[in-house]
Amino acid sequence: MLVVGDVVTDVVARHRGPLASGTDTAALIRTLPGGAGANVACWAAHWGCADVRLLGRVGAEAAAWHERELVAGGVRPLLVVDPEAPTGTVICLVDTGAAAERTFLTDSGASLRLEPDDWSDMLLDGVARLHLSGYLLFSASGRALVRTAVASARARGVPVSLDPASAGFLGELGADRFLALVRGVDVLLPSRDEACLLTGTADGAEAAAELSRRVPLVVAKQGADGAVVARDGAVVARVPAVPAAPRDTTGAGDAFTGAFLAALLAGIEPAKAAAEGCAAGALAVERVGGRPPTPAGVVKTTPAR
């Protein structure tokens, strides 16, 4: 599987209760590797996909660290080092209350500067699925890359999946524009909020069904309500969530997507693959950060200062 998407540095600040404006709020703070595309790739590898590759763009200051972290996660990194922009950084504010809800402050940096010149048709050699992070659609160069990559994949008969990635950025892009950009995609993996935003429908399952009139298979993540699978304008399966005690919901949707795609590539039918995704999402919310556990025997590293 080839994943094309964002590689960023996450600064996760876990605090309890509301932020105290104008003064200090106590928090536990960690710097971790992240990015929706990179997270999906690592979870797919963790869930058993033997060959996962990631095309992303990073700044020179953190390129070596991100490459080491991806390799440690079982992913083959294909990183373009940007000569001008720094690696993207996301500040994840996580309320340590019962829901472990998070708010992102995002500086996309080099990750949104992926462009068609970073693409080669040879990237698809030996690839059985292309997965695109929706963050690519939030820059002109990224949108051009998506068009190039999808056309290349269709010419080779390689199926394409896409995760919309951000309801906030999606609202700025616009539903009609997004749906035009994802023509040629065979699997769409939105969150409930993203599916509702794209359709103007308040019910997550109805939104998934409506989207499946535009994309052959829609698997909509419903958070604590699990997931719904839709085809041809109808919901064909409802998959329950796996119980979990949340610590940090950062990357839970990426975990679902990675595990779902790994299962799909293994020949598992979509509803059962969605159950695998729910299991990964439950594991993800019980961890801090957006990546799966590091395999035994692999030493974790920290970014150079």
UniProtKB/TrEMBL annotation:
Keywords per UniProt: Kinase, Transferase
Keyword Transmembrane on entry: no
Stored InterPro entries: Carboh/pur_kinase_PfkB_CS (IPR002173), PfkB_dom (IPR011611), Ribokinase-like (IPR029056)
PROSITE patterns: PFKB_KINASES_2
Listed name of the protein: Carbohydrate kinase family protein
The organism's place on the tree of life at top rank: Bacteria
Lineage, opening ranks: Bacteria, Bacillati, Actinomycetota, Actinomycetes, Kitasatosporales
Top enzyme class: transferase
